[in-house]
Amino acid sequence: MAEDWNLPSGDLMKGKRGIVMGVANQNSIAWGISRQLAAQGAEIAFTYQGETLERRVRPLVDSIGMDTMIPADVTDDASMDAAFAEIKAKWGKIDFLVHSIAFAGKDELQGSMVANTTREGFRRAMDISVYSFIDSARRAAELMPDGGSIMCMTYLGAERTVPSYNVMGVAKAALEAATRYAARDLGPQGIRVNAISAGAMRTLSLAGIKGGKSLMGTGRDWSLLKEDTSMEGVAGCALYLLSPLGRSIAGEVIHVDAGFHVVGVPDLPGE
Fold this sequence. Notes:
Number of helices: 9
Binding site for substrate: 104
Structural class: alpha/beta
Pathway: Lipid metabolism; fatty acid biosynthesis
EC number: 1.3.1.9
Helix content: 40-55%
Strand content: 5-15%
Strand order of the largest sheet: 3-2-1-4-5-6-7
Catalytic activity: a 2,3-saturated acyl-[ACP] + NAD(+) = a (2E)-enoyl-[ACP] + NADH + H(+)
Number of strands: 7
InterPro entries: Enoyl-ACP_Rdtase_NADH, NAD(P)-bd_dom_sf, SDR_fam
Shape: globular
């Protein structure tokens, strides 16, 4: 199934229950995070949208000994009501939420952002990529009477221009702002809200961006560590944020990209 990588096991998340939203296949960042959480003893409920995703994801869920998969369409309030009601009925309360959902139309992920972004495309990107996080955070918080941790996934395109990332970069910038505001609102309840900004990785999301494959090579060559962003690193950071180790961390966007985000100009040949 997923590529082999060092998967530390233990009981850091023993007794913790939570939701992971956004697993699409074995290469999903959400799946890498799920594997790491399960290896540390967490109990996870997975949401999915549609029968195709259910068939693709169920064998993965089975492989880590989990059995809770719940349909949830983040664009439909009734579907979200039903999903979170089912989780409440099953567990009563939860300790964490992982949100890894984003979408923009293929035609809008190439060429010019100004020329190719339609009103409907913008609305849809913001609804699925940003509002779904706000909505899910609100619903999850209602199931966290003892506090907890919420995290989402972002990308450097929120801060800097990336070829063809276009409206998704605008949406990710909004997502990062939403992370800070949610952290402010939910912090008094003992709920920590943070984001991980992962470097380019071989996922369905990257495949949907024109020229996406070249982003991985650039990320590796320009990064401080001269290596690809690793699933091990991203999942490890998520474990840190979702576990008691992440205490006192709130409102952060943590970059896990081998140091790519700090580079202004790459090392020049011969220097």
